[in-house]
Design brief:
The protein is an alpha/beta fold. The chain is built from 14 helices and twelve strands.
C-alpha cells in the first residue's frame, strides 16, 4: 500500500429504496423495504470511488444522512488536499466532533464519515490499478455465512443457502424460548452436525435473561452468540456473561469509536469482534481495530447488512485481515445487494473469492440506481 494524493472535488449521495415481498424481522423491528445510501467521491483529476453509509434504522435514516453528507460534511473536505484516506478520516473525526455533540447525533455523523472513508479507499486503490484487498496486503478468498434467518421456519432458507454454496448460517433469536429452541433444533437437523450455526439476539436480553438463555443455547454447539445484551452494557457485565456462557460471545456493530471497540477487544469477554465499517470508521478506523484484535487473539468478523457496495467493502476489509474470520452475507432478498455486487460474485464451499478488479470491484450502474433512487 502506498500514499495517495487526494483532492476531493465532488461528493454525492444516492438514496435507494427497494420493495420486498416478505418483511424481515428481528427481535425489535420489521423491515418492509430495503434501503441503501451510496456515496461517490470524485477527485479533481476525475478519479472516483464508491462507498456506502449505514442507514437501516430508523425509517427515513437514509434521507437524513444524505442531507448530512451533502450539506454539512462534504463541504468540510471538498477543495482541500490530503495525502491519504487516513488523513481525511482523522480530519473529519475532529471537524465533526462539535457538530455531532451540538445536534446530539454522533451516530449519523460517524456513519457519514465512514461512507466517505470507504469511497476514498476505493478511489485510491482504483487509481493505483489494484483491488483493494491486494492494496491492503490481504488474501482474496474469505469465509462467509448467510445471516438474517428467522424467526419463521428458518430451516427452509438455510436449505436454500446450503444449495447455493454456504456452509454456515446465522439465525435470529430473542423471541421466546419455545420459538428459539424449535428453530435451532430444525436448523441443526437441516444442516447437519458439521455446519456452523451462529445466533443473533439483537441486544434483546438483560444480563440475567442472557445468562438463563445461555444455559440452553450452549447445548446447540454454536459458533457464537451475538449481542445477547445491549452493546453499551459495562465491561463488567459482559465479563460476567462470558463467565456464565460456554459459547463464544460476539459484538461490535453497535459500538462506535476506537476507544469503545478497543476496550471490547481487550475485555476478555468477546471472542468475536464485529465492527461495521459503514457505521463507524470505514477502513481507516476498522483496520486499527483489526490490528488490535489480532494482538488479543479475538476473531475479526466485519458486520454488514445493506447494499452491494457495503458488502464488497466488508469483504475486502476481512480479506485485509488475513481472512481468518467470517464475512456476513444477508440471506434475505435484497436487490440493492444483489444488483450492485461486483460481477462474478458467488459462494463456493462456504467461501467467496474477491475479484482482481481495481478498488472494491464494483461501479453501480446509473440506470439501475435510477430505478431505485428516491428523490429528496
Amino acid at each position: 500500500m502506498t500514499t495517495a494524493d487526494l483532492r476531493p472535488a465532488r461528493i454525492e449521495a444516492f438514496v435507494l429504496d427497494a420493495p420486498i415481498e416478505n418483511p424481515v424481522t428481528n427481535s425489535f423491528r420489521t423491515l418492509t423495504s430495503r434501503t441503501s445510501l451510496f456515496v461517490r467521491v470524485t477527485d479533481e483529476d476525475g478519479a472516483f470511488g464508491w462507498g456506502e453509509i449505514w442507514c437501516n434504522y430508523p425509517p427515513g435514516a437514509a434521507g437524513h444522512r444524505a442531507e448530512l453528507l451533502e450539506r454539512v460534511v462534504a463541504p468540510m473536505i471538498v477543495g482541500r488536499r490530503f495525502a491519504h484516506p487516513r488523513e481525511v478520516f482523522a480530519y473529519l473525526e475532529t471537524a465533526t466532533r462539535v457538530p455531532a455533540l451540538q445536534s446530539g447525533e454522533p451516530g449519523p455523523f460517524a456513519q457519514v464519515v465512514a461512507g466517505i472513508d470507504i469511497a476514498l479507499w476505493d478511489l485510491a486503490a482504483r487509481r493505483a490499478g489494484e483491488p483493494l484487498w491486494r492494496w491492503l496486503g490481504g488474501k482474496p478468498t474469505v469465509r462467509v455465512y448467510a445471516s438474517g434467518l428467522g424467526p419463521d421456519r428458518p430451516e427452509r432458507l438455510a436449505e436454500k443457502k446450503l444449495a447455493e454454496g454456504y456452509t454456515a448460517v446465522k439465525v435470529k433469536v430473542g423471541f421466546d424460548t419455545a420459538t428459539d429452541e424449535r428453530n435451532l433444533r430444525a436448523l441443526r437437523t437441516a444442516m447437519g452436525a458439521g455446519a456452523e450455526i451462529m445466533v443473533d439476539a439483537n441486544q434483546r436480553w438483560g444480563l440475567e435473561a442472557a445468562i438463563e438463555a445461555a444455559r440452553w443455547l450452549d447445548g446447540f454447539g454454536l459458533a457464537w452468540i451475538e449481542e445477547p445484551i445491549p452493546a453499551d452494557e459495562t465491561v463488567e457485565r459482559w465479563q460476567a456473561l462470558a463467565r456464565a456462557c460456554g459459547t463464544p460471545l460476539a459484538a461490535g456493530e453497535n459500538l462506535r469509536g476506537y476507544a469503545a471497540l478497543g476496550a471490547a477487544v481487550t475485555s476478555g469477554a468477546l471472542k468475536v469482534i464485529q465492527p461495521d465499517a459503514a457505521k463507524w470508521g470505514g477502513f481507516s478506523g476498522c483496520l486499527d481495530i483489526m490490528g488490535k484484535a489480532r494482538e488479543a487473539g479475538v476473531q475479526f468478523c466485519p458486520h454488514w447488512l445493506g447494499g452491494g457496495v457495503g458488502l464488497a467493502a466488508a469483504l475486502h476489509l476481512l480479506a485485509a485481515s488475513g481472512a481468518a474470520g467470517w464475512g456476513e452475507v444477508d440471506a434475505n432478498p435484497n436487490e440493492l445487494r444483489t444488483l450492485f455486487l461486483p460481477e462474478g460474485f458467488s459462494v463456493h464451499a462456504g467461501r467467496v473469492t474477491l475479484s482482481d478488479q481495481p478498488g472494491l470491484g464494483c461501479i453501480p450502474d446509473p440506470s439501475l440506481m435510477a430505478r431505485f433512487r428516491v428523490r429528496r
